[in-house]
């Protein structure tokens, strides 16, 4: 059978699902995490004492001595080799947004020169990849090549399978010779630790003395597009930049809303089936899959996990989505805006906090004391967002996300928080000291405060226009881009909340008696916080023009483009909370700013190069050839003395080709200013990013408009690359 749009054969890839000893299909629970060296896998290979130590380290952190590392390495090698692994690697997250790995074989030689398999404690604990070609933002010189990866025991080892081999992966941090964090994982681990310390202090001040730690949990929803591989390879822009720099909207897009939650196409369903099998074996708890809003767009979502493991698993999910899509004849696009005119892709980071008793601190709860704890942490989060909104915005800044944020499909670049009608009323009542007008609703939970009537569970609808929305027992950071590593925005969010808690703790400590604060004193403090942070609470439509005007009146920042959003990282007053939390030092922040700026520049210039090449070598030649044919038709019609529309069409196309050529040269001129600018080589990154945003991005838009108009005038059979109607529709 042929696809009606792409003319490519529709093949449904068959896979062999895991089977039990009876040859029947296994249940998911039977093979879930079968390729993970977790505590269950360690039981048969470690002593009970070693197992207990590992359980504590994995849960609470801590160091592993050389002797224990040797025993774990031996057990991991034995387990991995039984499953067919021949190599191991330290798997880490450099600041490229992707992951990195260097494979070493278990092969070694004994003293007699005989080949053996070996994997030692030192090899488990540390490796030394060449760090010279990874982003460092000037924190180290190019000639300083040494970098170290160190095992992160809180995230279990796993086996990655390929068609012809298996490798043991060791989740690791990545640091420089001088100890600087060169990755995303190290700051995330630091932020988890410092947030836990501050949150425990808060709980102890509220009388919760039995709580020993607090952890953050994350459930990232991953959106992406699936298109036919054969079509994707015919487009230079998709191949090199991940998005279409040209492309006219098809006659039908998403306006009928018929793709959202619709039947999953058969080929895509086959892809999902294989994807989930592989992710389940890796211990990634994918729960949900469905069609997204835009044609060709889909989503998977996992069950919540600790933020560090969730970040690792999201990286695995993105890797598997891309590789397994190729096996099914697809290309998976993670870019935030691969197609103009339809929704782009985000990665909604659902975030919450739990204490050592297993209680979700963002669940309103069922008892008065739980509700006071909830209100305290809610206010601390609002304080953290209010005071550090600009840096939170910078944490999700990228060239790709600039196309998506605020485009009537995603949260705006203005950072605000949505709490829902009931919580908003309760905070207002706390602020004013009067609960007379709080509406009593069904299934209310008694807050235990005389002047308030209560708060109900699931008390709010979801607000998809808010960048930071409360959704029952968690916050949803909706502004994160689909291609981003969740580690960085989660690190900044953790640090911001830690800052909010620290400020509340300072007030609590000043009013504490015997280390505990009374309810009355607590409410006075919360009232102050509610009043101070009120301007970031917004319950309405974040897409509306009215909100932009209102936000400006409130004094909220609208950092609409990456350059101006990243600029806040140069302001020590705005980044001090990261230093106070011991997550970054001033040098770290400066280096990460440079890396984000360089990435913005490079991504933008890749797109420009794609556009120039496509316009020069594909669009212009096709249009000129067609124009020549039209002129021949005009000449023939004149010779035959017959009426022909060719002359009018030729005039229209000729005029637009001339306009295209002018826009192309204008873009090239702006591009050459950067390509030949020595200041870029000398890392004058602020000026370069600003120049791109103000001069090159608008020129690229103008060139696109000209090319897309010509796409509507030139016969489809002649157009040099696949159109939107071919790529977004027709997969069955």
Automatic annotation (TrEMBL):
Domain GS catalytic intervals: 192-619
Q: Name one GO molecular function term.
A: glutamine synthetase activity
- GO annotation, biological process: glutamine biosynthetic process
SMART domains recorded: Gln-synt_C (SM01230)
PROSITE patterns on file: GLNA_ATP, GS_BETA_GRASP, GS_CATALYTIC
One Pfam family of this chain = Gln-synt_C-ter
Boundaries of every GS beta-grasp domain copy: 86-179
The similarity annotation says: Belongs to the glutamine synthetase family.
Tell me the PANTHER family matching this sequence.
GLUTAMINE SYNTHETASE, TYPE-3 GLUTAMINE SYNTHETASE
Tell me the protein's name: Glutamine synthetase type III
């Amino acid at each position: 059978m042929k696809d009606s749009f792409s003319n490519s054969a529709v093949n449904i890839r068959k896979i062999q699902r895991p089977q039990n000893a009876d040859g029947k299909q296994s249940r998911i629970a039977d093979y879930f995490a079968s390729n993970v060296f977790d505590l269950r896998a360690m039981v048969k290979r470690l002593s009970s004492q070693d197992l207990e130590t590992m359980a504590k380290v994995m849960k609470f952190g801590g160091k592993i001595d050389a002797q224990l590392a040797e025993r774990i390495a031996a057990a991991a090698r034995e387990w991995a080799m039984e499953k067919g692994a021949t190599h191991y690697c330290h798997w880490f997250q450099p600041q490229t947004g992707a992951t990195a790995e260097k494979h070493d074989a278990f092969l070694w030689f004994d003293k007699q020169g005989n080949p053996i398999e070996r994997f030692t404690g030192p090899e488990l604990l540390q490796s030394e990849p060449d760090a010279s070609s990874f982003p460092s933002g000037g924190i180290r010189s190019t000639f300083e090549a040494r970098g170290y990866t160190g095992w992160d025991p809180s995230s279990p080892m796993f086996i990655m399978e390929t068609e012809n081999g298996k490798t043991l992966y060791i989740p690791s941090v990545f640091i420089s010779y001088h100890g600087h964090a060169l990755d995303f994982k190290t700051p995330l681990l630091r932020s988890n630790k410092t947030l836990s310390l501050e949150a425990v202090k808060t709980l102890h001040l509220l009388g919760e003395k039995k709580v020993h730690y607090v952890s953050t949990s994350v459930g990232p929803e991953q959106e992406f597009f699936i298109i036919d591989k054969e079509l994707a390879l015919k487009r230079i822009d998709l191949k090199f930049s991940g998005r279409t720099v040209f492309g006219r909207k098809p006659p039908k897009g998403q306006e009928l809303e018929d793709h959202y939650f619709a039947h999953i196409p058969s080929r895509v369903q086959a892809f999902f089936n294989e994807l989930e099998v592989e992710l389940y074996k890796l211990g990634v708890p994918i729960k949900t899959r469905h069609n997204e809003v835009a044609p060709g767009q889909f989503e998977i979502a996992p069950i919540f996990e600790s933020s560090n493991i969730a970040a690792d698993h999201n990286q695995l999910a993105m890797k598997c989505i891309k590789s397994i899509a190729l096996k099914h004849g697809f290309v998976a696009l993670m870019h935030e805006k691969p197609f103009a005119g339809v929704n782009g892709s985000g990665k909604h980071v659902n975030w919450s906090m739990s204490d050592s008793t297993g209680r979700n601190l963002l669940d309103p709860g069922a008892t008065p004391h739980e509700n006071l704890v909830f209100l305290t942490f809610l206010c601390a989060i609002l304080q953290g967002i209010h005071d550090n909104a600009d840096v939170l915005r910078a944490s999700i800044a990228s060239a790709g996300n600039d196309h998506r944020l605020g485009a009537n499909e995603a949260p705006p670049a203005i950072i605000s928080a949505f709490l829902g009608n009931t919580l908003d009323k309760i905070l207002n009542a706390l602020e004013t000291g009067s609960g007379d007008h709080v509406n009593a609703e069904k299934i209310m939970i008694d807050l235990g405060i005389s002047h308030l009537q209560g708060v109900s569970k699931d008390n709010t609808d979801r607000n998809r226009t808010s960048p930071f929305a409360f959704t029952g027992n968690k916050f949803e950071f909706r502004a994160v881009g689909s291609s981003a590593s969740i580690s960085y925005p989660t690190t900044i969010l953790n640090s911001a909340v830690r800052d909010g808690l620290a400020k509340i703790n300072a007030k609590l400590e000043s009013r504490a008696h015997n280390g505990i604060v009374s309810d009355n004193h607590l409410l006075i403090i919360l009232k102050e916080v509610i009043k101070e942070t009120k301007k970031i609470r917004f319950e309405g439509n974040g897409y509306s023009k009215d909100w932009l005007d209102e936000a400006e009146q409130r004094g909220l920042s609208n950092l609409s483009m990456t350059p101006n959003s990243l600029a806040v990282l140069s302001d020590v007053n705005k980044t001090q909370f990261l230093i106070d939390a011991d997550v970054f030092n001033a040098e770290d922040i400066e280096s990460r700013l440079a890396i984000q700026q360089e990435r913005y520049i490079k991504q933008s210039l890749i797109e420009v190069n794609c556009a120039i090449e496509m316009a020069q070598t594909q669009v212009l030649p096709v249009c000129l050839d067609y124009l020549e044919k039209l002129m021949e038709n005009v000449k023939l019609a004149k010779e035959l003395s017959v009426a022909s529309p060719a002359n009018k069409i030729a005039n229209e196309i000729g005029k637009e080709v001339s306009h295209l050529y002018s826009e192309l040269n204008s873009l090239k001129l702006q591009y050459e200013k950067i390509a030949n600018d020595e200041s870029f080589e000398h890392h004058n990154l602020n000026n370069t990013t600003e120049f791109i945003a103000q001069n090159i991005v608008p020129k690229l838009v103008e060139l696109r408009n000209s090319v897309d108009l010509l796409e509507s005038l030139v016969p489809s059979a002649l157009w040099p690359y696949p159109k939107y109607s071919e790529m977004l529709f027709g997969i069955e």
